[in-house]
Amino acid sequence: MRHFLPTKRLGYLLLALFISGFVLNFILQAASYDMNIIRVFNWISEFYWLYLFGSLFFFFLLLAVAALLPNMYAGPLVVFMACVTLGFVDYKKLTTTGEPLFPWDLMLLKNAGEMSRITKGMVSPLAIIMAVVLLAGLIWLIFKLPKLTIRLPLRFTYLLLSLSMIWGFGLMVGGQHTLASAIRYQNIYWNQKVNYTQNGFLFAFTGNLRQDLIEKPEHYSRETLMQIAKKYNSLPDIASVSTPVEQPNIVYMMDEAFFDVTRLPAFTWSEDPLKFIHSKEKLSPSGELLSPEFGGNTANIEFEALTGMSMYFLKDGSIPYQQKIVKMSSLPSIVSILKDRGYKTLAVHPFDDTFYNRNRVYPILGFEQFTSEQEMQNGGRITPNGYISDRSAVQEVVQELKASDKPTFVHLITMQNHFPFVKGMNGPNTITAEGVKPEHKEELETYVQDTKLTDEALAFLDQELKTIKRPTIVVFWGDHLPALSAGIYTQAGWDSNSRMKHETQLLYIANFDIGKQPLGTLSPAFIGPSIFKLTGQSLPAYYKLLEKVQEEIPGLSKNVLVGASGDIITGLTAAQQELLNDYRLVEYDMLEGENYSQSLLF
Question: Coil, helix or strand for 347?
Fold first, then answer.
């Protein structure tokens, strides 16, 4: 029996681990509450069982690594620091994009080098120095603390007990066990912000580990999908404005963090940063793109644009590229449709090809070729510290179009305007802003300079289109608004304006007549059908469904619904709800179901 009795020194360690569990849980919850300590205490007083169970989980996690490693101090220290780092990342993501940290975000760890570039400037040098000094001090303390030996039977007992408790916790949360309900845990997957603040970081994060993208709709079956296919297959194609003689090239240009900054009502500019766009939008189809995201998650905007599916139906925080599509063998998209019609399909992204698993997702969507920054022949940067410029990216696309002997679909995702907005990164600022607070002036002027460069790159593309013999159409849009300091949007009065914080520039340009019909506010999912109409392509039944939804709800987003009149929809009609039900069933079928749609709707 003496082999199982802890020594006095071991008792102190167990007490330290027990207290550390409560401290860790407190830190992580503070991160979810914007480091508001009062709110954390209020949460603990209301959801004390969640706090207790979560703290015990961390205690057993620390105990498990203590029992597993020879040095009983080192393991808990590493895990403690790792959890604190998770809390810090959660806090920074919340303050930047408004979303908490999800399990699938950790897949970006493989891109740690690229992430350090993207997040440069988000952490002050002083904070980094303090963290390094603290870590060095803790490591020094490990070697100075008296050695602690523990007999193998007791070590094994602690490990087995801890792993059993950790496994039981995961089982309780993942299966929504009766005990979970008794301690007031509810997986609020449809509102992840509330999920994290009400359940706590640990419960919400764990509950998301086994999360499907979309709930199974009622009446899902092959028969139901056949009825939907019959309904939309019977609809006629609507003629385009002017059908080109031969199959045209189609270019998607999704510009990083681009929006029309002149829409911000509080500020004035020394000159118009978007001279070309503002002149061209009067002569071509143009409008606003209703982005499903703010400040990040670029992959979700291109997911909508390429697949025609909508983030509206997916659970909060979802990133389909990382959670689902990467595990699939194929998925219908505008890429696969055009590929089947004889198009060459190409993606261009002037950054690392593994970001958001693009190198694995793109072939699944139907891309034959993916040119990333390593393969680009036009990799010019405005300064050595900047990203590859939009002009260089455009030159790469033009080069591909001119070299191709058949119709080509190109999907370009730019990087020039990505955070951080550091003065001089893309050359000197040439436009001044008035009305902005001094602490935000340099940041805003730097961003405006970036958009000016994009405008010039787009003007260059417009001129190059005239030198391309094959009819070519380009769809240009910003993926989401930039993660500028919150004070800038507050000063503009956009804090509570979901529509304005999710509308970016949308512009179609071509070297043949496409008219100048205003586009209004449009979700990325509906770009495909609109392009097919303008280029004389026949619409598959799936696109006819999207077209019908677009006619009723052209702006479809969790943040706001925009109707055909341009007004915000506050309540759905029976016809609109029926359309959304059909849309949801098809989307579920392709992402989580049996994919009957591939043979029925394409």
Answer: strand
